[in-house]
UniProtKB/TrEMBL annotation:
Belongs to the 3-oxoacid CoA-transferase subunit A family. This is Succinyl-CoA transferase, alpha subunit. One of its GO terms (molecular function) is succinyl-CoA:3-oxo-acid CoA-transferase activity. Its EC number is 2.8.3.5. The lineage of its organism: Bacteria, Pseudomonadati, Pseudomonadota, Gammaproteobacteria, Alteromonadales. Pfam families: CoA_trans. InterPro entries: 3-oxoacid_CoA-transf_A, CoA_trans_fam_I, CoA_transf_BS, NagB/RpiA_transferase-like.
Amino acid sequence: MAGFDKVVSSYSEAMAGLEDGMTVIAGGFGLCGIPEGLIGQIKRQGIRNLTVVSNNCGVDGFGLGVLLEDKQIRKMVASYVGENALFEQQLLSGELDVELTPQGTLAEKMRAGGAGIPAFYTATGVGTPVAEGKETRNINGRDYLLEHSITGDFAIVKAWKADRFGNCIYRHTAMNFNPMAATAGKITVLEVEEIVEPGELEPSQIHTPGIYIDRVIKGVFEKRIEKVTTQAAKQ
C-alpha cells in the first residue's frame, strides 16, 4: 500500500511543477478554509503571470492577497473583491485582469470542470453585464446563459483531516469551495490539519475521495479572523 501514500514532507515538494503562466484554483471563502501554507509557497517560489480562480483574493497581507504584493497574479476569476485594498488598486489601474463571476456560478464552474462537463446553462446573470458576449438560450420560456466550466493546472485546497491516501474531511464552514476546487485541478494538493492512517476515517464521513488528490501535506495554520464582531457585555 506504500505506493498509494501521497504525503509529502515539504511545501516545495507539494508545489513542485508549478510554473509561470499556469492556472491555480484555490479553495476557501474569505480567510476560512484557505490553504495558507501552499499560498505562502507560491509566493516564495516567485511564480508569476498566474491565473487564480477563487471566491475572493484574501485580504491585504494574508491569504491570496500576498500574491498581489509582487504582482504574481495576472488574472483573477472571483465572485467578490471587497476586502482587499491592493486588489482594488490593481483592478482600477488595469494591472490586474479580473473576471467577476456570480458565486454559485463559480462553484458550478469548478464542479462541472471536475466532472468533465465542458459547459452548462444557468439563469444567473441574464439581463446583466454578466451576460455580455455569452450565448443565451430560451428553455421552457426562460432565458439561460451558457457558462463554460473551469479546470486548473493546480488546485490547492485545505481540509481538517485526511488519511495518507488523500481521503479527507472538511470541518463545518471551512468546507465552502474546497470540495469543488479539489476535483478541478490536473494536480490537486491538499493541506490538512491532521493526517491519520488509512482505515481510521469513517468511509461515510469522507467528503473528497483520495482519487482526486495527488499530494497531501500537514500544515500549520494561523487561521486569522477576517472580521471580528463582538457584542458588548451585559451589565
